[in-house]
Amino acid sequence: MKNITAQEHTTVDQAGLEREVPSLDSPHPAAASLAVHCDEPGCEAEPVEACEYVDSRGNACRTHWCATHGPEVAGHRYCRRHAGTMVALGSKANNPRALPDVGHRGASLVRWVYRDLDPAMTTLLDAESRSNEHLLRDTEVAVGRAEDGSRCWEMSWKLASPSGIRLRITLMVEEQDDSVVLVRLGDEVLASGVPPWIEARRLGKQVTEEEDREQRRSFYAFLEEYLTEAIRQA
């Protein structure tokens, strides 16, 4: 299994989310119930509304946001992370069992990486498809089960024919560690790694826009090359 290092990964839109949203590692952020102003750093706008996200265990987000900084999804106000989670899950967000823990970024992380990789994967798989095959692309994050029985969040590309699915490539984040993205071909995990924007936040490291662009270019170039070789050998 190939390990994707921080230098090989890329920064996507979620990098800004990770820098700007207060830590959600605890289901009860400090002083949330006493919020007077928006939780966006430097914003003192009023009124504010609590993020409406409640996870599958009944824990609420409890951060507070103004109309400008609290995205609205299907008529409900959320913080950026949980707005991303609800959009990523789509229709599956109606099932409480599909909702990650308050501090878990898995669903939205899978969607960001899938969205950014989709054009290259579509081109690659179209080129590799046989005459009787067509490409199936996920539009929502699915909830599955990891080998240990815990939940995982995933999106896939599939080459299918009337006789079934010949090739499946899946991006996955497991419940046990929401910082690691796994890339799977069929049932085999080909690569895994911690995205650099998550690692940077852990280390308190700031990166420039130029560094972000270079990490993005390097990551996708590596991943496309690696998957191209794996698919051709499948």
TrEMBL record:
UniProt superkingdom: Bacteria
Polar residues biased stretches: 1-13
Region of interest (Disordered), residue spans: 1-28
Protein name according to UniProt: Uncharacterized protein
Organism: Candidatus Aeolococcus gillhamiae
Taxonomic lineage from the root: Bacteria, Bacillati, Candidatus Dormiibacterota, Candidatus Dormibacteria, Candidatus Aeolococcales
